[in-house]
Amino acid sequence: MRDKVKKAVFSAGSVIFWILLWHIAAKIANRNLLFKIPLPLETLNEFLNGAATAAFWKAVSNSVLHIVSGFLTAVILGLICGMLSGNSAVFKALTSPVSRLIRSVPVAAFIVLAWLWIPSNTIPSFIAFLMVFPIVWLQIENSLLSIDVKLIEMAKVMGMGRKGIVKNIKIPSVLPAFRNSCITGLGFAWKSGVAAEVICNPTGSIGAMLSNAKSNLEYARVFAIVLTIVILSFILENIIKLVWRENQRDKI
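^ that's the sequence the OP posted. Answer follows.
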């Protein structure tokens, strides 16, 4: 309990420190006419004004729905492909060029390519999927390939069947990697999905709001929308951590 309180105090202190630094930097920049930086209170006021409108929540719900759907699809298919490539050398050899291609092509290039054939409102889901899919795939594959072969041989000698090996050796080896890939992948999905919205500008999305605010030089609104993106990313990441923690608790 004491460690949790200490951690919370340090976290709060860190946030306050960076807000004060932001305030000081904005004061200096605005006073010397270097460039416009909204003050923290201006950004908060713009955020609260936006949050009081129905259009804001419609954009938030649309973006969350698109990005989370792409993320979940990537998690499911990445888990399946990772298990297949981790257990089959043939499947691994056939599909490794695909995973390398996805990892090597910049996200902006994928967005532009997808824009040629896919409707703009589905591109964020597709881009979120592409960014998460190889992360989950490779994490699962590597965790399976890193299992000590002698451990499996010993289990077979002791009379453990295939189901027992999967349940008692392979699944416990895969779970930590699967958890980490989900948490990491969610961050990538959120950032890449919003980036796709900014470029493709689908109506009723966070990315479209950000693009419009930037075009109209509404600096405080741009900062407020970025603050919204950060808050939503934090909430989604903690939701997945909480779900994982609860599942682990139920197993115990």
